[in-house]
From TrEMBL:
Organism, scientific name: Mucilaginibacter mali
Job of this protein: Catalyzes the dehydration of chorismate into 3-[(1-carboxyvinyl)oxy]benzoate, a step in the biosynthesis of menaquinone (MK, vitamin K2).
Pfam family, one: VitK2_biosynth
InterPro entries: Menaquinone_biosynth, MqnA
Substrates-to-products reaction catalysed: chorismate = 3-[(1-carboxyvinyl)-oxy]benzoate + H2O
Name this protein carries in UniProt: Chorismate dehydratase
Enzyme Commission (EC) number: 4.2.1.151
Superkingdom of source: Bacteria
Signal peptide range in chain numbering: none
Amino acid sequence: MDKVKISAVSYTNTQPFIYGITHSDIIDQIDLSLDIPADCAQKLIDNQVDIGLIPVAATVNMPYWEIVSDYCIGANGPVNSVFIFSNCEIHEVKTLQLDPESRSSNNLARVLLKNHWQVTPQLIVNAPDYAHSDDPDTAFVQIGDRTFDKKGKYAYTYDLAEVWKEFTGLPFVFAAWIANKPIPQEFTAEFSKALKHGLDNRKTVIANLPARADFDLDDYLMHKLDFDLDADKVKALHLFIDYIKKLN
Ligand SMILES: C=C(O[C@@H]1C=C(C(=O)O)C=C[C@H]1O)C(=O)O
């Protein structure tokens, strides 16, 4: 059988899954690549891979997709790695610079700005520096490890999973394991077991990560991230997709 091609997110949030996959026999059946979230999505859309840990917002452009496994990159309340940082209070924002590596959080920011905060800033997709502007009315979507040392560096900080929870009462799913074609059940069952193995060994994963003085990796991987794709998260995923479709 050909190997199953899989693209996973190259950030710290995915390290438990990578540990589980690479410490299970299923690794012999997998051709694994690590990519930024936007590229995970593009590879799945372009059929360069069969399964991706892709930003759920990217499913909006896919003719066929199915969820693989009961695991995801989610949060039930603050996630501590997905923010709008801003030079001004959120209601004053005139320009929003998007994060080029994101698909879900850029859309989550737009959904919350429109429906929760009720402001409609101009969007900048390819800012010269996505993380910086001297303009006093500019805000920035930022995700992943690049945010770990950023809190306190901007005048205002908004954790987008926390604001989504205030807005909907629900957890949030940033990325899920999604296939662009039907995957044999024998494979998905073993793949799920490998993912669970990684989650069960998070303490080992954390011990193996380079320690950081500026970020609590244990709190992030054990508490802030919520990896279980439970019924509330599936509900949130579909609600989010509905909001995205109503954006324009
Ligand atoms: C929690 C996070 O979730 C992520 C956010 C994503 C996005 O905005 O498209 C995609 C994958 C996840 O890595 C994060 O990266 O900090």
